[in-house]
Amino acid sequence: MQVDADNYNFELICLVLDFGSGTKAIKIGRENHISGGTIFLGKGTVRNRLLEFLSLDQIRKEIVIMICRKNIALKALERLNEEFQFEIAHHGIAFSIPLCNVFGTSESKSDDININEERGVDSPMYK
Questions:
Q1: 41-62: pLDDT as tens digits
Q2: Cα angle vertex 113, ends 110, 102, to 5°?
Q3: If residue 16 lies in a helix (H) or strand (E), which one and from where to where?
């Protein structure tokens, strides 16, 4: 199955933020015409004896994902960068991944996709 590059109409915006910042990111997304998002809790540990002694070795982050149209994603990412200042160390990270289509949203329509399906062999063994 081949998918034309022009058919990547959606972007998946992923953010890794400090605990408690996910709701703020969703709010900024809504202000930039993103209908919503999902927040996951990320937990981890730091291997440092001093931090373990002070019981500060647990790290909690929020992973935020939002799906939007390609033309909205760049503006939303720029606005999120203004707010969270990702260029500064330990302020989080943001990236986006192109998506061909999304099913289950009001914006996605199966008419929008152009999938060219091809078989791998000329004469298949089984018919």
A1: 988 877 888 877 777 777 889 9
A2: 65
A3: strand 10-18
